[in-house]
Amino acid sequence: xxxxxxxxxxxxxxxxxxxxxxxxxxxxxxxxxxxxxxxxxxxxxxxxxxxxxxxxxxxxxxxxxxxxxxxxxxxxxxxxxxxxxxxxxxxxxxxxxxxxxxxxxxxxxxxxxxxxxxxxxxxxxxxxxxxxxxxxxxxxxxxxxxxxxxxxxxxxxxxxxxxxxxxxxxxxxxxxxxxxxxxxxxxxxxxxxxxxxxxxxxxxxxxxxxxxxxxxxxxxxxxxxxxxxxxxxxxxxxxxxxxxxxxxxxxxxxxxxxxxxxxxxxxxxxxxxxxxxxxxxxxxxxxxxxxxxxxxxxxxxxxxxxxxxxxxxxxxxxxxxxxxxxxxxxxxxxxxxxxxx
Length: 341
Known about the structure:
By secondary structure, the chain is of the alpha/beta class. It is built from 12 helices and 15 strands. Strands 3-2-1-4-5-8-12 form a 7-stranded parallel sheet, sandwiched between helices.
């Protein structure tokens, strides 16, 4: 299969590319290399597969002619390129809109005008559900819980964009969903929760699991936004890659559908009151935040995905437990400290 991965040198993109190349697909990566770590990820893929193992196009999804040319003969398009930080969207909402909303529209139009009707899978976000203020959280000793959602938040939850990032990703989410109905594009939306794993160059504004691990290993200061009891369900990138593969293999079922993808209720942690002790255990020393500050805009006290629709419709479920996955990430960071100097 001929596959195009936008944002292919990013964290998820390079892991997905690695799996697709190993499976024998003809892979094209489309990336502007603006994100920290993307050049290192590209170098890693070239070291693994050589210059001819895949095709790389340095381009920007805001450049419609460039993405149109890259998409022309593809049989599957995995759209991962994005502006990924809520904080950045607040300070620069125009760029956030141009990348996430207009950029996705460009990739959709390129897919619609491609020679084949490609599978199109879009990485959306749980932020499309907003702050969920109508579902009050209960504060326990180490975490918040949502009594109204014991099995997690399903796709039936109404959308409520909160922050420019939520709005731009949400607009793109809805465009991708609607292109299946209006144009027959074989499109699928993945509303992803907290994805983590190897080759994630997390920073304070985005990729908090990797950032905390990187900070612990390299001695950088950690700041906690809020009280540290916010709960997320964690999904290892290897499990997400399996979801892309399974949804593509069963596109007759998944086309036109939206799926919440996360670790689910079995793979949750509060961002510091529970994650902090695990991090200290892995580091072999006490890890203490350097600072505590205000909550970020639109930050959900709890988000846990109900992943039962994905399991029911295309047989996918998380396999990597949260402790195992974080241990793997910690070892990868410890063995690759040169990437974070």
